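User: Second chain of the day. Same drill as before.
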Amino acid sequence: MGRVAYGSSGLLALALLTTCSACSAGPAEEPKGVGVAGAQAASVTVFPQDKSRNVTTDRDVVVSAQGGTLKSVRVDGGKSGILAGELSADRTRWRSLGNVRPNSTYTVTTVSVNSAGRQNETTSTFQTVKGTKTFDIKTITPNKDDTGLTVGVGMPIMITFDQPVADRLSVERNLSVQSSKPVEGAWHWFDDTHVDFRPRKYWPAHTKVRVEAKLAGVRGGPNMYGKRDVKLDFKIGRSQITKGSLNEHVLYVRRDGKQIREMPMSAGQGGAWKYHTTSGIHLAMSRESATLMTSPGIGPGQAGYYSLMVYNTVRISNSGEYVHSAPWSVGSQGNSNVSHGCVNISPSNAIWFLKNTLIGDPIILTGGPRKLEPTNGWGHWQETWKEWLKWSVLKDASTMALL
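Assistant: Same format as last time:
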């Protein structure tokens, strides 16, 4: 130590030194609520960093803590709402679920706790990219009104958008299918406004299915982002598959592997190409108690014109093909083809078929020269799995378990 000065001021300094020395002789008293004296607060890192700008909507918000754990994380986008997220099991990492929205400022507020129990709060902000347009799901099938929510084993999931989608990858990444039984499947883009999901093989009977389109904030193209999330639950009914040869003139209906009905039929008479019934894997698209059928491409007064109300019809394509009641051709059903392209069956068989068919049931016809096009109605199963995958960005969207 240096020299001690004497005199009145020196005595005071010595007294103070002695007093402080006596205070430090015993154990240090812990500050209340802090833990060990001098313990540092947990270090918290937030990504995107504070005051970041033009943050893309597909960027995850990630918060991590070192030297402690996270007690809470809140990411508030104002009018865009609170961003949901989840903590890791050890509470050292938080990651967002879903997407941030464009044109928004988000405030990230964290509360961390160090090993001694000391809490610390941090706040940071970031701004997302600007967006001038939105896109939305225009239709999703199956649905309650058009198909019912119990459908056949061949039913695809079909989504149409109200705007052309340029960023297919971004959109497809945010489409998911869950099922109570595992299914291998994939999405398939027919054009920029139409993407469908199909299993590699038919759905297992009695499967519960959920499709989620988490598109809120998802980039669909330049300056265009998804408007909202959509979720749909439906289920697959019993397995019913109808098969028939256009040359044998009989339809066989099998349910859960067992034949339950045999129906004589008469198919397209041919001649003109439009009068051939298409061969291929059709799906039941609608069930109608009555349908007005008119001659394709032929007007009133022209040769071959007809306009006829037909009853108990099941639509199987967009080119005007139905399985329907045809009392006028009962004599030909089972032995010859006399229709303009539809599948004629007797009135009693038509009543039964309408009652026992689900939308999405496969109806497989073979033996004709005209093939069903994949884009003719719901001709999805006309494509091989390899062909189907050609128009998928991710090439695989096998279902996740539906809990």
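The two ends are 75 Å apart (CA to CA).

User: Great, on to the next one.
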